[in-house]
Amino acid sequence: MKLNVLVTGCGGDIGQSIGKILKEEGFSIIIGTDLHSKHPGRFIFDHSLQISSCKSDHYLSDIHKLINEFKVDLIIPTSEPEIFFFHEHEIYEVDGKPVIMANPDSIEVGFDKLKTAEFLKNCGFESPKSEIIAFTDPIEFPIIVKPRRGSGGQSVIKVENIVDFEFYRNKYPEYLAQEYLSGQDGEYTCGLFSYNDNTRSIIFQRELHRDYTGYGIVSDIPLVNEFLEELAKRINLTGSINVQLRIRNGQPCAFEINPRFSSTVYFRHLLGFKDLIWSITMTFGKQIETFTRPLEGTEIFKGFQEFISKPTKS
Q: Any bridge partners for residue 157, and if so which?
């Protein structure tokens, strides 16, 4: 598409993955923004720029300036604080340029882990017991402690005993205490896209390297596919989200709904699950291309790449 795209959070792995997709798909100008410049985004984006935090009064004015300077056609926020900023202020366009995000229901439910747990329970889905840690008395350990708001693996703590539990309860009384799910049957990260009742999903059984998917294998599990399709209906999904789950009692048991593109977005794109491109295509009212599921057993590996920036001679 001959469009100029502004991608926020270009210092993170998701922002850089999105930059690579847009480059490969032949978009005209790709502008990346972040809070700092010490990241390899400059090697991926046509322009890599530093802007104010979304908590600053200058954030929107910085976005306005970039839209005017680079004739931006659309905006893709990738960092969770920025996505929630646009959602909280009900900003779906800036200067008439669309902001690419999942639908409000998905963001409202996904970024609040207590609402996620309540939503899953009210829908009758299998899900781990979850309570605010200040009001929790654990029956057995281990137990998961994590921030109530936000998504992803950062700050998720596996607590093994009552002494550590009391420490975290006193330090983070607003955090969520969640039942621990055994990983013996594997953990799955699932891309889920829906538009006009057209729902598509892709499932990876994954292994975490720190807080991202370092290794995965494409899985085709009918029960999980059915769960994801029903979830999309219940959350009125329009756009792309990521769902993390394990299998318990033979049923999918979701513990995270991440209302954003995930760290596997580039892998998914390479395998034909082009949810980034589909999200842009539907925003401009164009026909979304067909999707053929990749072969079960296809493996993905997250690697590293080195970059060097040499000073220019004066």
A: 145
All domains in the chain, ordered by first residue: 4-100 (3.40.50.20), 130-179 (3.30.1490), 183-301 (3.30.470.20)
Helices (H), the chain: 13-24, 59-70, 80-88, 104-110, 113-122, 162-171, 222-234, 265-270, 275-283
Instruction: List the beta bridge partners of residue 251.
Output: 248
Q: 74, exposed or middle or buried, with CB in 10 Å at 0-12, 13-18, 19+?
A: buried
CB 144 within 8 A of CB 121: no
Which residue in this structure is represented by tokens 């979701």?
A: 254
In sequence order, which residues have a C-beta less than 8 Å from that of residue 85 and are 6 or more positions away?
Answer: 54, 59, 77, 91
Q: What is the pLDDT of residues 7-53, one digit of tens each?
A: 999 999 999 999 999 999 999 999 999 999 999 999 999 999 999 99
- What gap in Å lies between CA 140 and CA 27, rounded to an integer? 52
Q: Which residues pair with 299 in a beta bridge?
A: 217
Quote the CA–CA distance of 152 and 17 in Å, as a whole number: 16
Q: Average pLDDT in the 89-102 region?
A: 98
Burial 93-106 (b: 16+ CB within 10 A, else e): ebeebbbbbbbeeb
